[in-house]
Amino acid sequence: MTHFQLCALLMGLAVSGMLRVGGIKIYTSHEVEAVNGTDVRLKCTFHSSSDIKPPTVSVSWNFRPLGPGREESVFYYHDKPYPPIEGRFRKRVVWAGDILGGDASIMLREVKFIFNGTYTCQVKNPPDVHGSAGEVRLRVVATASYYEIAIIAGAIGGAIVLMLLILGIILWVRSCRRRRMERAAERLERGPKPPPVKKERKDPTLCHPAEALHLYVKEEEIEIDSSDGVISEPSTKDPSSSEEEDDSSDDDDGGDDDD
């Protein structure tokens, strides 16, 4: 057989669907632990090489018990969910997936010890119908394990710390706001601030008042002659001297008369 004939044969098989050219990939959580009487989610996601068309996608969940027993159907989905109508999973399984999001998970309600076993998840998206099924081993226990208790306690403690932190921030913001309001009220009570006093600049050419030389000017009388409006010099003669002169002149006159 020539190389050309071999390529033609392979292409023909691929077109006819006889050759597996791709496979759908399924991812599960492998192992899950749940407390008796609680709900548990069995996670199953898938990735297909073909475009996802919800009306053509089918999901099958099956169960194999730990002990002896036959495999039984748990859940089926094809365009809509088909929960079981009989068996141990009747009214205990609900759809929790999203086909367009590549999610084919289911939820088990109020699990019992008889739910211990292996759950298989298989998804088909024509023409991508090949691929191995994913498996999830469920272990139902009476109480939560120490690891789960530690996780729950850590989650609760983290939530409490976060709440306390948020509460502290809220109280701090309120305290700051109250202080601002108190300061504003004090400012209103005090009234507006007086304008700042401007400091006068000292002229370096001026001296201190204590160092200043006080000059006194003697006030002099100024006589004004009303006849010509000329200011005449004030008389410097003593009034007493003028009177003496008048007396002497009188005496002289008297003497002459006697003669």
TrEMBL record:
Ranges where the Ig-like domain occurs: 37-142
Domain of life: Eukaryota
Name under which the protein is recorded: Ig-like domain-containing protein
Source species: Albula goreensis
Disordered as annotated region, ranges: 184-207, 222-259
Biased composition (Basic and acidic residues): 184-205
Subcellular localization(s) per the UniProt record: Membrane
Signal peptide (from-to): 1-23
Presence of keyword Signal: yes
Cellular component terms (Gene Ontology): plasma membrane
Family: Belongs to the myelin P0 protein family.
Regions that span the bilayer: 149-173
Main location: membrane
Membrane topology, as annotated: Single-pass type I membrane protein
